[in-house]
Fold this sequence. Notes:
Strand order of the largest sheet: 2-3-1-4-5-6
Order of helices and strands: HHEHEEHEHEHHEH
Distance between the termini: 63 Å
Strand content: 5-15%
Amino acid sequence: MAWSDEQGWLSSLLGPSPLAIVLTLALVLSVPLFLHLVIYRSTSATSLPTFLLIGPSGSGKTSLLTLFERGKCATTHISQAPLAVEVSLPITTTTASSRYRSVNDPSLQVHKRFLLVDTPGHGKLRYHALESIVKPQNLKGIIFLVDAANISTGSDGHGGEGLREAAKYLHDVLLQLQKRSSNSKTSRAPKEMPVLIATNKLDLFTALPAALVKIALESEITKVRSSRAKGLLDSGIGMNDVEEERDWLGDGGDGAFGFSQMEEVNVPIAVIGGNVMGADHADVVQWWDWIGGNL
């Protein structure tokens, strides 16, 4: 059938025939629909920025989760599995990405949503949090919640059980973050991963101020680090081997550990006090501001 043949199939498709019009409309309408259904919907579930909520049991993580999600605390129980909820920042909180946006921008609220992932604080279930650090999905920051009323040192200078438990957990979390740099196969610095140490329950008489919680945790982490290094040495591993195993948190040597040392591996740490159970939620405003500053 020749090109000039008016009955040819190619001529029919290219000509102003009803078939050509129908096929063209179907193609024009189906392609955008396909892209929307297949590409957009497949990525929308994981496109929100995520913050990881971790800390020892009893620190108030689930209460903070419900407060951020619903605007009020709810009756909670010990978490057995991770729980992710979608949260929106208060209108009064400005995100770093929307700092220069107009207040009348209709897309502003879209950029203020994030996922908050609560993880179990029990020692046997903390692998959930550590796995989330090793394999992050759009992770923007980590909130380590501690009970400021349960962080204390005795008259002999030794930390209580609550302090030791929090320091051990925090040590493991920071060490996992440090390994991002030491295990990297390139010379590029790892992506910045900010950490907020949120000292909860500041309304209680026995609670330590945030500044003292910081000092107590740094001191106790120093002891944890030394204790674990000593355990490796007692097992027959030399100090050089300890360093090669990359299990030494912070700067090498026998000096004291400080949170500022983590800045070398792009892990800035802030210690901010608050109270989840506050009457007017004013006691968590600074935590909201920290989250907004990292969105």
